[in-house]
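Problem 12. The chain below contains 334 residues. Write out its predicted structure in C-alpha coordinate notation.
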Amino acid sequence: MPTLQNTQFSILELAPVRDDKSIAFSLHHALELAQHAEKLGFERFWLAEHHNMDGIASSATSVLLGYILANTQTLKVGSGGIMLPNHAPLVVAEQFGTLATLYPHRIELGLGRAPGTDQVTMRALRRGRQETEDQFPQDVAEILQYFKAPEEHQKIVATPGQSTHVPVWLLGSSLFSAQLAARLGLPYSFASHFAPRMLGQAIQLYRDNFQPSEYLDQPYVSMGVPTVVADTDEEAQYLATSAFQRVLALMRGDSLKLKPPVESMQNLWSPVEKMSVNNFFALAQIGSVQTVKEGLEDLLKTYQVDEFIFTCDIYDTEKRLKNFSHLIDIKNNI
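Solution.
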Protein backbone atom coordinates (compact mmCIF):
# COMPACT_ATOMS: atom_id res chain seq x y z
CA MET A 1 0.00 0.00 0.00
CA PRO A 2 1.52 3.37 -1.02
CA THR A 3 2.01 6.05 1.63
CA LEU A 4 2.19 9.82 1.40
CA GLN A 5 5.89 9.61 2.27
CA ASN A 6 6.71 7.50 -0.80
CA THR A 7 4.29 9.29 -3.15
CA GLN A 8 5.75 12.06 -5.30
CA PHE A 9 4.35 15.59 -4.79
CA SER A 10 4.41 18.00 -7.74
CA ILE A 11 2.86 21.32 -8.80
CA LEU A 12 0.78 22.30 -11.84
CA GLU A 13 0.87 26.06 -12.34
CA LEU A 14 -1.56 28.04 -14.51
CA ALA A 15 0.02 31.42 -13.70
CA PRO A 16 -3.30 32.86 -12.44
CA VAL A 17 -3.86 36.56 -13.03
CA ARG A 18 -5.33 38.45 -10.08
CA ASP A 19 -7.99 41.08 -10.69
CA ASP A 20 -5.81 43.77 -9.05
CA LYS A 21 -2.41 42.81 -10.49
CA SER A 22 -0.64 42.82 -13.86
CA ILE A 23 0.23 39.85 -16.04
CA ALA A 24 3.89 40.60 -15.28
CA PHE A 25 3.12 40.08 -11.59
CA SER A 26 1.64 36.66 -12.39
CA LEU A 27 4.68 35.59 -14.42
CA HIS A 28 7.08 36.72 -11.70
CA HIS A 29 4.98 34.93 -9.09
CA ALA A 30 5.14 31.71 -11.17
CA LEU A 31 8.92 31.88 -10.83
CA GLU A 32 8.64 32.67 -7.12
CA LEU A 33 6.47 29.57 -6.70
CA ALA A 34 8.91 27.43 -8.71
CA GLN A 35 11.82 28.58 -6.56
CA HIS A 36 9.73 27.88 -3.46
CA ALA A 37 8.92 24.40 -4.82
CA GLU A 38 12.59 23.70 -5.44
CA LYS A 39 13.53 24.61 -1.87
CA LEU A 40 10.69 22.51 -0.46
CA GLY A 41 11.60 19.44 -2.49
CA PHE A 42 8.67 19.05 -4.91
CA GLU A 43 9.33 16.50 -7.63
CA ARG A 44 8.34 18.58 -10.67
CA PHE A 45 6.82 21.93 -11.65
CA TRP A 46 4.61 21.99 -14.73
CA LEU A 47 2.94 24.81 -16.64
CA ALA A 48 -0.35 24.44 -18.51
CA GLU A 49 -1.10 25.83 -21.97
CA HIS A 50 -4.33 27.82 -22.32
CA HIS A 51 -5.26 30.53 -24.80
CA ASN A 52 -7.55 33.57 -24.92
CA MET A 53 -8.21 33.39 -21.16
CA ASP A 54 -7.60 36.65 -19.33
CA GLY A 55 -6.96 34.91 -16.01
CA ILE A 56 -4.23 32.50 -17.21
CA ALA A 57 -0.79 33.82 -18.20
CA SER A 58 0.95 30.60 -19.30
CA SER A 59 -0.14 30.62 -22.97
CA ALA A 60 3.42 30.82 -24.37
CA THR A 61 4.30 27.75 -22.36
CA SER A 62 7.76 26.90 -23.71
CA VAL A 63 8.87 30.53 -23.36
CA LEU A 64 7.78 30.66 -19.73
CA LEU A 65 9.43 27.28 -19.10
CA GLY A 66 12.73 28.80 -20.26
CA TYR A 67 12.32 31.63 -17.74
CA ILE A 68 11.63 29.15 -14.94
CA LEU A 69 14.55 26.90 -15.90
CA ALA A 70 16.98 29.81 -16.12
CA ASN A 71 16.19 30.87 -12.58
CA THR A 72 16.11 27.48 -10.81
CA GLN A 73 18.87 24.91 -10.43
CA THR A 74 17.61 21.37 -9.92
CA LEU A 75 13.81 21.32 -10.22
CA LYS A 76 12.28 19.24 -13.01
CA VAL A 77 10.26 21.64 -15.15
CA GLY A 78 7.78 20.75 -17.84
CA SER A 79 4.47 21.20 -19.60
CA GLY A 80 1.22 19.95 -18.22
CA GLY A 81 0.65 20.18 -21.03
CA ILE A 82 1.47 21.34 -24.48
CA MET A 83 -1.82 21.05 -26.37
CA LEU A 84 -0.55 19.15 -29.38
CA PRO A 85 -3.36 19.94 -31.84
CA ASN A 86 -2.21 23.58 -31.71
CA HIS A 87 1.37 22.82 -32.80
CA ALA A 88 3.40 21.09 -35.48
CA PRO A 89 5.25 18.18 -33.83
CA LEU A 90 8.60 19.32 -35.28
CA VAL A 91 8.24 22.77 -33.69
CA VAL A 92 7.46 21.20 -30.30
CA ALA A 93 10.46 18.87 -30.61
CA GLU A 94 12.77 21.75 -31.51
CA GLN A 95 11.52 23.94 -28.66
CA PHE A 96 11.82 21.24 -26.01
CA GLY A 97 15.01 19.92 -27.58
CA THR A 98 16.49 23.40 -27.19
CA LEU A 99 15.44 23.55 -23.54
CA ALA A 100 16.83 20.05 -22.94
CA THR A 101 20.13 21.04 -24.52
CA LEU A 102 20.40 24.17 -22.36
CA TYR A 103 19.14 22.47 -19.18
CA PRO A 104 20.02 18.75 -19.42
CA HIS A 105 17.88 16.23 -17.52
CA ARG A 106 15.49 18.92 -16.23
CA ILE A 107 12.84 19.40 -18.93
CA GLU A 108 9.74 17.22 -19.43
CA LEU A 109 7.07 17.28 -22.13
CA GLY A 110 3.49 16.55 -21.14
CA LEU A 111 1.20 16.34 -24.18
CA GLY A 112 -2.54 16.99 -24.26
CA ARG A 113 -5.03 16.04 -26.95
CA ALA A 114 -7.47 18.97 -26.53
CA PRO A 115 -6.83 22.52 -27.82
CA GLY A 116 -7.12 24.17 -24.39
CA THR A 117 -9.30 26.97 -25.72
CA ASP A 118 -12.51 27.82 -27.60
CA GLN A 119 -13.23 26.97 -31.23
CA VAL A 120 -12.57 30.49 -32.61
CA THR A 121 -9.20 30.73 -30.87
CA MET A 122 -8.37 27.19 -31.95
CA ARG A 123 -8.80 28.22 -35.59
CA ALA A 124 -6.54 31.24 -35.01
CA LEU A 125 -3.87 28.99 -33.50
CA ARG A 126 -4.09 26.49 -36.34
CA ARG A 127 -4.14 29.07 -39.17
CA GLY A 128 -3.80 27.10 -42.39
CA ARG A 129 -3.57 23.71 -40.66
CA GLN A 130 -6.27 21.04 -40.81
CA GLU A 131 -5.25 19.35 -37.56
CA THR A 132 -7.68 17.10 -35.73
CA GLU A 133 -7.59 15.26 -32.43
CA ASP A 134 -7.58 12.02 -34.43
CA GLN A 135 -3.99 12.81 -35.45
CA PHE A 136 -2.83 12.83 -31.85
CA PRO A 137 -1.31 9.27 -31.80
CA GLN A 138 0.56 9.95 -35.03
CA ASP A 139 1.86 13.30 -33.75
CA VAL A 140 3.00 11.76 -30.45
CA ALA A 141 4.91 9.05 -32.30
CA GLU A 142 6.51 11.71 -34.50
CA ILE A 143 7.72 13.69 -31.47
CA LEU A 144 9.09 10.57 -29.79
CA GLN A 145 11.13 9.82 -32.92
CA TYR A 146 12.51 13.38 -33.08
CA PHE A 147 13.94 12.99 -29.55
CA LYS A 148 15.80 9.77 -30.46
CA ALA A 149 19.04 9.40 -32.39
CA PRO A 150 18.19 9.95 -36.07
CA GLU A 151 17.75 6.85 -38.19
CA GLU A 152 19.71 6.36 -41.38
CA HIS A 153 18.15 8.35 -44.25
CA GLN A 154 15.74 10.13 -41.86
CA LYS A 155 14.70 13.15 -43.90
CA ILE A 156 13.59 15.46 -41.06
CA VAL A 157 15.78 15.79 -37.97
CA ALA A 158 15.01 18.05 -34.99
CA THR A 159 18.04 20.23 -34.31
CA PRO A 160 18.15 20.74 -31.36
CA GLY A 161 16.04 17.78 -30.29
CA GLN A 162 17.74 14.72 -31.73
CA SER A 163 19.20 12.38 -29.10
CA THR A 164 17.93 14.54 -26.20
CA HIS A 165 15.49 11.81 -25.10
CA VAL A 166 13.16 14.35 -23.46
CA PRO A 167 10.75 12.46 -21.14
CA VAL A 168 7.26 12.49 -22.67
CA TRP A 169 4.04 12.13 -20.67
CA LEU A 170 0.49 11.81 -21.95
CA LEU A 171 -2.22 13.81 -20.21
CA GLY A 172 -5.94 13.20 -20.32
CA SER A 173 -9.38 13.71 -18.84
CA SER A 174 -11.00 10.76 -20.65
CA LEU A 175 -10.05 7.22 -21.70
CA PHE A 176 -8.36 7.94 -25.04
CA SER A 177 -4.96 9.10 -23.77
CA ALA A 178 -4.96 6.46 -21.03
CA GLN A 179 -5.17 3.77 -23.70
CA LEU A 180 -2.52 5.43 -25.87
CA ALA A 181 -0.14 5.93 -22.92
CA ALA A 182 -0.53 2.24 -22.04
CA ARG A 183 0.18 1.12 -25.61
CA LEU A 184 3.27 3.34 -25.93
CA GLY A 185 4.54 2.57 -22.42
CA LEU A 186 4.54 6.24 -21.34
CA PRO A 187 3.75 7.81 -17.96
CA TYR A 188 0.18 9.07 -17.65
CA SER A 189 -1.27 12.06 -15.81
CA PHE A 190 -5.04 12.37 -15.35
CA ALA A 191 -6.57 15.85 -15.22
CA SER A 192 -8.71 15.14 -12.16
CA HIS A 193 -8.07 18.70 -10.94
CA PHE A 194 -10.89 19.78 -13.25
CA ALA A 195 -12.47 16.60 -14.70
CA PRO A 196 -12.51 13.94 -11.99
CA ARG A 197 -15.41 11.84 -13.25
CA MET A 198 -13.50 9.19 -15.24
CA LEU A 199 -10.38 9.05 -13.05
CA GLY A 200 -10.81 5.51 -11.69
CA GLN A 201 -11.81 4.06 -15.05
CA ALA A 202 -8.90 5.73 -16.87
CA ILE A 203 -6.30 4.56 -14.33
CA GLN A 204 -7.60 0.98 -14.50
CA LEU A 205 -7.59 1.00 -18.29
CA TYR A 206 -4.03 2.34 -18.33
CA ARG A 207 -2.74 -0.22 -15.83
CA ASP A 208 -4.55 -3.18 -17.40
CA ASN A 209 -3.20 -2.44 -20.88
CA PHE A 210 0.27 -1.10 -20.07
CA GLN A 211 3.07 -2.42 -22.29
CA PRO A 212 6.63 -2.03 -20.95
CA SER A 213 8.76 0.13 -23.23
CA GLU A 214 12.16 1.79 -23.55
CA TYR A 215 10.62 4.62 -21.48
CA LEU A 216 9.01 2.73 -18.59
CA ASP A 217 9.10 -0.79 -17.15
CA GLN A 218 5.79 -0.47 -15.33
CA PRO A 219 2.81 1.93 -15.23
CA TYR A 220 3.29 5.36 -13.65
CA VAL A 221 0.21 7.43 -12.79
CA SER A 222 -0.08 11.04 -11.66
CA MET A 223 -3.39 12.63 -10.67
CA GLY A 224 -4.31 16.32 -10.45
CA VAL A 225 -5.61 17.53 -7.09
CA PRO A 226 -6.86 21.08 -6.38
CA THR A 227 -5.77 22.25 -2.92
CA VAL A 228 -6.44 24.98 -0.40
CA VAL A 229 -4.53 24.26 2.78
CA ALA A 230 -4.59 26.77 5.63
CA ASP A 231 -4.13 26.92 9.40
CA THR A 232 -7.78 26.03 10.03
CA ASP A 233 -10.64 24.41 8.12
CA GLU A 234 -12.58 27.68 8.36
CA GLU A 235 -9.80 29.76 6.83
CA ALA A 236 -9.32 27.22 4.03
CA GLN A 237 -13.04 27.24 3.17
CA TYR A 238 -12.92 31.04 3.07
CA LEU A 239 -9.81 31.12 0.83
CA ALA A 240 -11.35 28.49 -1.48
CA THR A 241 -14.12 30.88 -2.52
CA SER A 242 -11.63 32.50 -4.93
CA ALA A 243 -11.33 29.16 -6.74
CA PHE A 244 -15.12 28.68 -6.64
CA GLN A 245 -15.66 32.13 -8.19
CA ARG A 246 -13.13 31.37 -10.92
CA VAL A 247 -14.83 28.14 -12.00
CA LEU A 248 -18.22 29.84 -11.80
CA ALA A 249 -16.87 32.52 -14.15
CA LEU A 250 -15.57 29.82 -16.49
CA MET A 251 -19.03 28.27 -16.67
CA ARG A 252 -20.63 31.65 -17.34
CA GLY A 253 -18.04 32.81 -19.88
CA ASP A 254 -16.96 35.70 -17.63
CA SER A 255 -13.50 37.00 -16.80
CA LEU A 256 -11.24 34.34 -15.25
CA LYS A 257 -9.15 36.80 -13.28
CA LEU A 258 -8.74 35.60 -9.72
CA LYS A 259 -11.02 37.43 -7.28
CA PRO A 260 -10.64 37.97 -3.52
CA PRO A 261 -12.33 35.45 -1.23
CA VAL A 262 -15.83 36.16 0.07
CA GLU A 263 -17.55 35.24 3.31
CA SER A 264 -20.29 33.33 1.51
CA MET A 265 -21.00 32.07 -2.01
CA GLN A 266 -24.72 31.78 -1.26
CA ASN A 267 -25.86 34.81 -3.28
CA LEU A 268 -23.28 34.36 -6.04
CA TRP A 269 -24.45 31.07 -7.56
CA SER A 270 -27.65 29.21 -8.30
CA PRO A 271 -28.24 25.70 -6.91
CA VAL A 272 -27.41 24.20 -10.32
CA GLU A 273 -24.21 26.25 -10.58
CA LYS A 274 -23.22 25.26 -7.06
CA MET A 275 -23.62 21.60 -7.97
CA SER A 276 -21.53 22.05 -11.14
CA VAL A 277 -18.73 23.80 -9.24
CA ASN A 278 -18.81 21.08 -6.58
CA ASN A 279 -18.53 18.42 -9.30
CA PHE A 280 -15.53 20.26 -10.74
CA PHE A 281 -13.86 20.20 -7.32
CA ALA A 282 -14.99 16.69 -6.38
CA LEU A 283 -11.44 15.64 -5.48
CA ALA A 284 -10.29 18.99 -4.07
CA GLN A 285 -8.55 18.96 -0.71
CA ILE A 286 -9.66 22.00 1.28
CA GLY A 287 -8.94 22.40 4.97
CA SER A 288 -6.33 22.38 7.70
CA VAL A 289 -3.15 20.32 7.47
CA GLN A 290 -4.80 17.46 9.35
CA THR A 291 -7.97 17.55 7.23
CA VAL A 292 -6.03 17.56 3.96
CA LYS A 293 -3.65 14.86 5.20
CA GLU A 294 -6.61 12.57 5.86
CA GLY A 295 -8.13 13.46 2.49
CA LEU A 296 -4.93 12.69 0.59
CA GLU A 297 -4.56 9.40 2.44
CA ASP A 298 -8.10 8.49 1.34
CA LEU A 299 -7.30 9.36 -2.29
CA LEU A 300 -4.14 7.30 -2.14
CA LYS A 301 -5.98 4.33 -0.67
CA THR A 302 -8.63 4.55 -3.39
CA TYR A 303 -6.47 5.16 -6.47
CA GLN A 304 -2.95 4.07 -5.39
CA VAL A 305 -1.29 6.59 -7.69
CA ASP A 306 2.44 7.20 -7.89
CA GLU A 307 2.17 10.98 -7.76
CA PHE A 308 -0.09 13.88 -6.83
CA ILE A 309 0.23 17.04 -8.90
CA PHE A 310 -1.37 19.94 -7.08
CA THR A 311 -3.11 23.09 -8.28
CA CYS A 312 -4.01 26.05 -6.10
CA ASP A 313 -6.09 29.19 -6.70
CA ILE A 314 -5.53 31.18 -3.51
CA TYR A 315 -5.77 34.93 -4.03
CA ASP A 316 -3.22 36.04 -1.43
CA THR A 317 0.28 35.35 -2.78
CA GLU A 318 1.87 34.56 0.57
CA LYS A 319 -0.97 32.24 1.56
CA ARG A 320 -0.63 30.54 -1.83
CA LEU A 321 3.05 29.84 -1.16
CA LYS A 322 2.14 28.65 2.32
CA ASN A 323 -0.35 26.19 0.80
CA PHE A 324 2.54 24.31 -0.79
CA SER A 325 4.64 24.48 2.38
CA HIS A 326 1.74 22.81 4.20
CA LEU A 327 1.60 20.09 1.54
CA ILE A 328 5.25 19.20 2.01
CA ASP A 329 4.72 19.17 5.76
CA ILE A 330 1.93 16.63 5.14
CA LYS A 331 4.22 14.48 2.97
CA ASN A 332 7.00 14.61 5.57
CA ASN A 333 4.49 13.99 8.38
CA ILE A 334 5.55 17.14 10.24
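Discussion. The first strand starts at residue 8 and ends at 13. Students who got a different answer should revisit the alignment rule from Section 12.3.
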